[in-house]
Amino acid sequence: MDHFDYRDGAMHVEQVPLDTIADAVGTPVYVYSTATLTRHVTVFRDALGQIDNPLIAFAVKANPNAAVLATLAKLGLGADVVSGGELLRAVAAGIPANRIVFSGVGKTQDEMRLALDHGIFQFNLESEPEAEMLSAVALSMGKRAPVAYRINPDVDAGTHAKISTGKSENKFGIPYDRAIASYAAARDLPGLDVQGVAVHIGSQLTDLAPLEAAFVKVGVLVKALRAQGHDIRTADLGGGLGVPYDPAEPIPPSPAAYGAMVTRVTQGWNLRLLFEPGRVIVGNAGALLSRVIRVKQGASQPFVIVDAAMNDLLRPSLYDAWHDIRAVKPSGTRAAANVVGPVCETGDTFAMGRDLDVVQAGDLVAFMTAGAYGATMANTYNSRALTPEVLVSGNQWAVVRPRLPLETLIAGDSVPDWVNS
Ligand SMILES: *Cc1c(COP(=O)(O)O)cnc(C)c1O
Question: What is the dihedral sign for C-alpha 255, 260, 266, 271?
Answer without folding.
Answer: positive
